[in-house]
Amino acid sequence: MTCAWSLLRLLPLAALFVGLVACGDRSDAGSAATAPNPLATAQRQADEGRARRAAAAADGALAAETYAASRGSVAIQSALGPSDKDGYAELDWSQMVPPEDMKLLEDAPPVLHIGSRRSAQVGTLHTVGALEGRKVRLPGFVVPLESDGNGHMTEFFFVPFYGACIHVPPPPPNMLVHVRLAKPIDTPSLYDTFTLKGTLHTVVTQNAMASSAYAMDGATLETYRNDAAERLRNAFE
């Protein structure tokens, strides 16, 4: 699976997140104050799905394995793309979301607001445990968070589509990676696509912008290369 296909497969998910939550505010301040927190609601619903899985496990190992297989909980090793020469395997953003959470996103009704307040983040903090400690490479975009005294970026959110956390609501926490770079770099453009390489960890980060369920320390950022598109362009030159 190539980076190009990963980004193409991601377009429907990006459209889904933007459609689920449109930026805005409600004119009725009282209603806004009493509205349920989407993140907390989704977390509770996904927890219920996990509780059902635990109940299946209690009925016996064979029943638990059958249930897990039906929910798509297969070994992540077989799902990841091929590794490069340095051992970094291709990872698709959708593989970072547990089946229960993906089902919630697919079934969630659109939430419409009127006004200018940015919408709340949706989704949960649940992660795919098999990804802990895996060396992966992931295509996406940068949302800068911190820089050093020389103005070089040291910390950022890595997101699956352009404008996430800034122009549109943040993706779910389990489709956000909080990154600390091995070496500071010049702050890149928000429009540019990059490949993030590093060891993925299931660590929660929360700040005023968004919450993330994954993290990378000592990561590297490389310019994204669409090899398939490059080969096609060269064929017509």
Report on this structure.
This protein has 237 residues and is α+β, with helices and mostly antiparallel strands. The chain has a single domain (3-235), classed as OB fold (Dihydrolipoamide Acetyltransferase, E2P), CATH 2.40.50. The protein is 32% helix and 22% strand. The protein has 7 helices and 8 strands. It has helices at 3-20, 29-34, 38-58, 61-70, 76-79, 99-107, 227-235; strands at 89-90, 135-147, 153-159, 177-185, 194-199, 205-206, 211-212, 214-223. A 5-stranded mixed beta barrel has the order 2-3-4-8-5. Helix 6 links the parallel strand 1 and strand 2 (135-147). Helix 3 runs antiparallel to helix 4. It starts with a helix and ends with a helix. The model is unreliable at 20-33 and 61-75 (pLDDT under 50). InterPro entries: DUF3299. It comes from Luteibacter rhizovicinus.
Any idea what the CATH architecture is?
Answer: Beta Barrel
Q: Could you state the CATH homologous superfamily?
A: Protein of unknown function (DUF3299)
Strand content: 15-25%
- The residue-averaged pLDDT reads 74
Number of domains: 1
* Amino- and carboxy-terminal Cα gap: 26 Å
The CATH topology annotation reads as: OB fold (Dihydrolipoamide Acetyltransferase, E2P)
Number of strands: 8
Biggest sheet details: 5 strands, mixed, barrel
CATH class: Mainly Beta
Helices and strands, in N-to-C order?
HHHHHEHEEEEEEEH
* Category by helix and strand content: alpha+beta
Number of helices: 7
Oligomer type: single chain
Helical coverage, percent range = 25-40%
Show unreliable segments.
Answer: 20-33, 61-75
